[in-house]
Amino acid sequence: MRFPPRPKDEATRQRMQGQARTDTQPELVVRGIVRETGNAYRTHVRDLPGRPDLANKKRRWALFVHGCYWHRHEGCPRATLPKHNRGWWISKFEANVSRDARKEQMIRNAGFRVLVVWECETLDERALSRHLEEWFRECRAEGSLPRQGRTLAPAASAASRQPDSPLRRARARIR
Ligand SMILES: [Zn+2]
Fold it and tell me: What domain range includes position 99?
């Protein structure tokens, strides 16, 4: 998908540069918590489909840590829409969201349990810690069952799974 030239204002440029950072603050928080739960992991796992931010191949779990703005956390106050170049931004965000959906499905299809942690969830470390402990418990419980996922039908497209997302509504409004 091709996009028109980047928007020029400074705030926007800085935001876009922020997207390129690898070890974001939310990722560091999540790693710290996962370490405390005693689960081993690797980061930015290139040899796994979808390249999850944290994963354990043997235990077959994968985590994505998503910034609320770029990855469009639904209903989150951080997922604002810039006032200028709205159409451009909406296309860009839609591409991000469908890329995320594809990546998530790829790793699920490889038989992994997948969890998305949102940036705003890392602000309450105690709540996130409880959430992750619970999730790892479920992972372990499921680990004793026959592996599932490889035979799943291909993912429905991101669009059909999110028929009425705020992004879609915003797009409908500006057209
Ligand atoms: Zn959020």
Answer: 21-174
* pTM beyond 0.85, yes or no: no
Distance of CA 65 to the CA centre of its chain: 5
Give per-residue pLDDT as tens, 140-149: 888 765 554 4
- Ligand 1: distance of its center to the CA of 8 in Å? 26
Number of independent structural domains in the chain: 1
Residue 65 CA to ligand 1 center (angstroms) comes to 11
| Cβ atoms < 10 Å from Cβ of 85 | 17
SS (H, E, C) 25-69: HHHHHHHHHHHHCCCCCEECCCCCCCCCCEEECCCCEEEEEECCC
Query: Ligand 1 centre from 73 Cα, in Å?
Result: 5
**What is the rounded average pLDDT for all residues in the chain?**
82
* Within a domain: 13: no
Model confidence at 73, in pLDDT bands (50, 70, 90)? very high
CA distance 62 to 51: 9
38 band by pLDDT with thresholds 50, 70 and 90:
very high
